[in-house]
């Protein structure tokens, strides 16, 4: 794919002047260069000089030379006039930090015990029987009855519990428009162009378009995978990438157990049927069930339960942390005479 893209770019460069391809640039023969000159003979006589720059040829396994720019993606320049064809574009570093939405937990709650039962004895031991109207009593409703319990039996109140917290993701304060594609911060661009035929002094060098600005550097390029060692003539190594695989995720939100919880329920019995004349009181906490012992000679005629302490505490959220990496793919290695781009980038 890279070779195809490179070939198409070179064909474009060649079409600019009906030129022959030489590496990643194209050149004009002296006859082509001078065909439109006012004095063709004088033009051909002067044609033995490279009007660009003589640089070392690309060794085996490399393409080029070519002019390479590297810098901030937003600062990408046009290819120079002497090398107008873009033969490669890649990326160097990413500017897309992963920010996870914070996790939160729902509030826990003090929960009523499973039920209220009548014990077989005054000491809350022996067989227990469900008490009619127990759920209404536990919900704080005054339940009148002429025969809730006898004066020889106790009431057993189970321990209240604390409900767990449910995790969720804190929604952003305002809607955010987020691109599905990570953004590259730094990029690279390789340009090729047209020179006259190879007129350098030795066969080891070739004539290529000259650098017109300090942002570009003469480079050779290896398109594809694998470790590449740069030759001494092109010591500055630059690796650019075609794309990336974003494998970053946010860890799932979780909630720790409730902490700081204190839940206790008080069971009250009354001499009258309207819960106004208190007879006995017993409390059940999260650690101990309650036992409401009978009062000899007295039979309760109404009953209700109320929260004595209702402090369910809180749960600590966990999760919502970035994990994973961005993996660049499709590397290409450029070996340059000097590091391209501005040192302050």
UniProtKB/TrEMBL annotation:
Annotated signal sequence range: 1-26
Keywords: Signal
Domain 4Fe-4S ferredoxin-type: 34-64
InterPro entries: 4Fe4S_Fe-S-bd (IPR017896)
Name used for this protein in its record: 4Fe-4S ferredoxin-type domain-containing protein
Organism: Sorangium cellulosum
Lineage of the species this protein comes from: Bacteria, Pseudomonadati, Myxococcota, Polyangia, Polyangiales
